[in-house]
Amino acid sequence: MKKYFFVFILFGFWACEPKVAPPEPVFPIPEERQILWQELEYYGFIHFNMNTFSDREWGFGDESPDQFNPNELDTRQWAKVASEAGMKGLILTAKHHDGFVLWPSAYTEHSVKNSPWRNGEGDLIQEFVDACREFGLQPGIYYSPWDRNHPDYGKPEYITYMRNQLRELLTNYGEIFEVWFDGANGGDGWYGGANETRKVDKLTYYDWPNTHALVRELQPNAVLFSDAGPDVRWVGNESGFAYETTWSNLFRDSVYAGMPEYAQEWSDGQENGSHWVPAETNVSTRPGWYYHTYEDHKVKTLDRLVDIYYESIGRNTSLLINFPVDTRGLIHERDEEAVLALAAKIEEDFAYNLLGESEIIASSERGKGYEATNLFDQDYETYWSVPDGTSDADLIFDFGKETTFNRLLIQEYTPLGQRVKYFVLEKETVDGWDKIADGTTIGFKRILRFPEEKAQRVRLRILDSKDIPVISEVGIYHAPALLLPPKISREKNGMVTLSSTDNDLEVYYSLNPDSEMQLYSEPFMVNEAVTLRTFSKDPGTAEMSVETEVRIEKSKALWQSDEERAIDENPQTYWTSENNEIEIDLGEEVELSGFTYYPMQARYPSGFISSYEFQVSQDGKLWKKVSEGEFSNIKNNPIQQEKRFEVETARFIRLRAIQTVDNQAATFAEVGIITPLL
Ligand code: FUL
Ligand code: CA
Question: Whose CA is nearest to atom 7 of ligand 1?
């Protein structure tokens, strides 16, 4: 009884303690719509429009509505995949640069209403927003200002057209969370048959202030995206990474959409920027934004997607991953598999916050309502802060026992502005505190990845900040290693490098089918052909990845040709041959029983060989044809091709293109030989 009474009195004191004022904001600060947007964090892009059917990335504008004819289109499948992948929204290309529109707009004939799809009765925007809502996703709209179809593009009349269409899109389909304005403009186009180049002044032509005002009027909660915001800005690349130092602040008045120096100079934000314009990282599951069968083999791998996640969401930006929806009108199975694997991995990485049970010692607390325990209550609205004027602030977390970890997650309470400029994570050792990792900016969310560490106590120090820190959440995690087989790379001199997909993995290999696997420590030389077996192992759990077995060919150390790029062991480099052939001096007499041809891997490839002839020679003068034929399906699936023949001995080889897929000069990304295995 007494005891309860005592507790009651204590509680009474605590409850009566005067509430301390919140920290003063550090400007700029986000608007309400930006605060709602930043919590979405992860959402999807759908590139699906005329380009899907013309097999292009940028249609010219002279396409016919007849071409638009998906026969299995199912927006519910898109929404289902996106929601299963953990996304909170989807943005659809309502109109891309070619001008075709996915809804029956009253202002153009270049639309679904004149296509065979749903007999011209369809409205893809309607189907899209319905599916999004059914699956709990917020719908967004991509609208290209550049229009290569419209006759008036470049004149003032076109701006009226654009606004009329925006009015349709933003009035008829309910709430839209983001309106995405692309800055791209390549100049030339069909333009109603004029077939010419039309350059506009990107700063003034679109009269952005009034176009933005229209969007605000129709959709007050939608964020406006472009290079220049005004609400959300481009990250400055399409590869899927933000910068380690990323400010949400931007000198917005110095920027306009499509300005040439944007990516270089502005895209990482500015510490003292005048406006709050956080970044969005946009990237596709494949090299292209639109679907091309020839990229079916290029869906990003899980390790790449995991890096993208950490380098975007983990660096104070949102992540917008694109699905190039295919000609059926569906997200392709491989893209679906890829994003679901990413979702599963991220869930695994952040399954358990090790701080949840730790004891916490803060260097100081601002007072009631700003306690350090707010840091892991999973509530972004509650935060820890310190008294005004405090310069250094740090937190010690005691796990109670030695604990293993490899991730730090930290979030600033951005409604009061972005503040932190430098922070450090340390662990306690017998000799004192040791640095584990450090970072510059935090913003809405920052995640640091580092190799596994063990400690009972860790310390997080905010060492430089624009004002007192205001931190919403902190997490320390032990992410399981990404257990994929190592990547194998080769150099022309024969060196083989094995690289693991995760810092914490060990790599094992063997060069002989009968020998034991050995621990890999550094690149090794392979001169003659061998079979390489390799796998990764997590030393913590003793779990192993699947084992891969690949053939490593005789090295190309002695090879000579007019074009190194075709024999440098790097399929990303290529050579274009004016006479459609390549001749290689192998440097010595070699036994061979086949050859390999790697077609060009660039974003816009050309000159794939479709039918070939392969010759060998002893002296480089007298040639003998040993193989001819076709590389079937190379257009749609440009992977390495292999052809075999009876064993030959030769010093020189020649691969000749009889025919290329597009009748362009033959290209060679890499040529190799297959030697008989002993
Ligand atoms: C770019 C466009 O030119 C691409 O086609 C794509 O839509 C991408 C998201 O933005 O600027
Ligand atoms: Ca909190």
Answer: 289
